[in-house]
User: Fold this.
Amino acid sequence: MSQAESGIVVDHGQSKWSDLWTKEDYLAIWLGFLIIAVSLVAYFGFGPKAEFAERIAKAEQLQSAEAAKAPFKTIAWYKAEDDKKKLKGTDSPFGKFVSSWTKHPGSWSSNPLDALIRSEAQAKAKNDKAMPAYEEAKAKAAAAFGAATAAEEAAMAANFKDEAANGQAKAKIAEWRAAEKSASAAKSKTTNKPYNYIPTLIGLCLFFIVIFGAGMTLMKKSFFEFAKGFFIVFLVAVLAYMLGNQAICKQYGFGAEAWGILLGMIIANSIGTPKWVLPACQVEFFIKTGLVLLGAEVLFGKIMAIGIPGIFVAWVVTPVVLVCTFIFGQKVLKMPSKTLNIVVSADMSVCGTSAAIATAAACRAKKEELTLSIGLSLVFTAIMMIIMPAFIKAVGIPEILGGAWMGGTIDSTGAVAAAGAFLGEKALYVAATIKMIQNVMIGVTAFCVALYWCLVVEKEADQKRTVGAGEIWHRFPKFVLGFLAASILFSILDSNLGKGMANSLLDGGVVKGGTKLMRDWFFTLSFAAIGLSTNFRELAKYFKGGKPVILYVCGQSFNLALTLGMAYVMFYLVFPEITAKI
Assistant:
């Protein structure tokens, strides 16, 4: 098989300046940062920055006054916090425009067309159906607010020096907050609006053809051939979103990523993917651009907020599991393909698909090996995100420990958040933060694999091989630099803007109203492309003896045991004071 057929290729020639605008990795960086730049300018240059800053300052001034007055967070403090949370960049004209034109199919139960079109009558019927539950929840919230107000006034009457009164006020305020959250969730179900996503999906498809087609042209590939086949790739991605948003699939975590691969494989291995579609199956280009955008969501400030325990769980356990799983595959299972071994090991131990792509690029794994690794990851992720929260609740594992355990073991960031939310707010926070810390390992893993492959794996049998920095540089997947650069840039912005403004305009604007919207689409397109370009006959030889599955199961079992042990030691034995503050 030639390098071109193997899927991920590294050029061993000397670097040229032209590589910066003709090579896929660099083009992924430029496209990712173009999206980042447009989002930053739109939200900070022309967005409501001044208005937000003034309102946030007033809210924080009120919160400071309340914090100085009472030994607990008062009703006024929480109302000021709610006022800050209402400030979202996505509510700006640009945010609404981008959100509207990047919509993917919505949720549905029995009629697939509901994912694309909802009439006024349907919207009204859904609102009317949800209204009684909202009215009930609103009444409970109002009663809870009355009780919280009375309890706070009693504590205030004692000048906040009566511990019993303070405790009662704190408890009643917590009950009010819980009731408010339930009422807010119920209210969201009464705000359904009619929609027709078909025109916006067509527009989005054309936009993707232009931006990725420009990259194809710079890589000296045919824009026309790409554009012609992309319609099918996009259609599979849309269908994947539709199936992933079906009520039952959504409940069990079988999302668009899994459906994209499955649908594509069904087409490729039944009627066969037409040859004219294959030029549009640019798996690496799509996902590498998405990974650059993922860097905007990996913030060092949030990583450090959880402290040393989370860093130990993510940065100590992960490399140990990766190395041990790779050695197990070579020494015990005797897997014939070292590249498949290391890609599966990285996929399972680091952070799923993202790590698999970077590692595959570093060791030049075959396309089929990468596909197999991602497929295993998606299947086991769907299983773990359902079983782990249920198991944690059944055996009574503490919420924070459960969150840390899931954050360090479930592969997908989205699945981690969903599983954490099932346990509670603290579990969600801990799980998502540890996964974010683990995501930093993408770049480190890629570099280390590139180094090891150059110095050890590909070492000539009968003579010593001198490997210079240039060889390692050629091997290193350059798009990882874009991921790290985006992470550093957004970490600096996050730390300098202040929490309120960072939440409102950076996370609530640039990320959620820009980079993340695009990243989700790019990932789904890549999975659709993987499925369409995968032939079961090509994968069959890698399943001989079931070694990849055995490797994944054994490695993940080791990962589960080691992560749980490390999380318990760090969060409850070594640093209990940090756990108490979460």
Notes: The CA atoms of residues 178 and 440 lie 34 Å apart. DSSP finds 29 helices and two strands in the chain.
